[in-house]
Amino acid sequence: MTHTTAAPALDRHDTLSPDRQDIARLIALMTGDEKHAPAAHSTLDALWVLYNRVLRVTPDTVDDPGRDRFLLSKGHGPMAYYAVLAAHGFFGEELLPGFGAYDSPLGHHPDRLLVPGAEIGSGSLGHGLPLAVGTVLGLRAQGLTDPRVWVLIGDAELDEGSNHEAIAHAGPAGLEQLHTLVIDNASATHGWPGGIASRFASAGWAAVTVDGRDHEALYEAFTTPHPGRPLAVVARVEPKN
């Protein structure tokens, strides 16, 4: 069935923000037979804060070795990601209405060869965090210690063993350039005493849990000092179902 994706409600922190309203408008442009609207909307606020206030990458610096890298591991339901990229000029918003069409570069899973600004092709659960660890190690090998690497994963991805291997390596290795954003919409099959953040903390990460709709709390968490350790931010949003 083909339908128009409803725009997410504006949160209490941005009810007067014309830019935030524009993001909602951009998401509403994307029509098609999509099945992951909750996945997309769960990431919107975190992506907005990252691209607006934290990430050091622009359309002019996408090939600069010194840029920050953002890896979207939660690649299913990428409408919010596409909207934020369009809003920041990585590609024109005229591409958005074709989302999911046969001849559109904006597929149901992002393709790094087709989507300007995308660092990886994603959507297969459990790949993004290991790729982010490898990215940091690759940057270190080149002597590039300033670029920060951010990866956004869903809490359900923690059902995949590949992520736990990455978590277990990154903490003891002191991968300070690595930042993992976990969108927690209560989709994970398994849990941990003390919550998701405790899983990272037990492996030597700095870890914090915040309201995933609170922009100031997100920004404070994203900019938390964590010398010598990777950082995990668990952003809690409303349950998927």
Return the string of H and E elements: EHEHEHHEHEHEHE
Annotated CATH homologous superfamily: Thiamin diphosphate (ThDP)-binding fold, Pyr/PP domains
Shape: globular
**Computed CA radius of gyration, to the nearest angstrom:** 17 Å
Distance N to C terminus:
21 Å
Based on secondary structure, the structural category is: alpha/beta
Strand content: 5-15%
Whole-number total of structural domains: 1
CATH architecture: 3-Layer(aba) Sandwich
| Physical arrangement of strands within the biggest beta sheet | 3-4-5-7-6
Number of helical elements: 7
CATH topology: Rossmann fold
Number of strands: 7
What oligomeric state do the depicted chains represent?
A: single chain
Low-confidence stretches: 1-18
Helix content: 25-40%
Mean pLDDT: 87
Structure description:
- The protein is of the alpha/beta class and about 240 residues long.
- It has one domain: Rossmann fold (3-Layer(aba) Sandwich).
- Helices cover about 30% and strands about 15% of the residues.
- It has 7 helices and 7 strands.
- The protein has helices at about 20-30, 35-55, 80-85, 130-140, 160-170, 195-200, 215-220, and strands at about 5, 30, 70, 150-155, 180-185, 205-210, 230-235.
- It has a 5-stranded parallel beta sheet, with helices on both faces. Strands 1-2 form a two-stranded antiparallel ribbon.
- The protein is globular, with a radius of gyration of 17 Å.
- The model is unreliable at about 1-20 (pLDDT under 50).
- It holds the Pfam family Transketolase_N.
- Keywords: Thiamine pyrophosphate.
- Its cofactor is thiamine diphosphate.
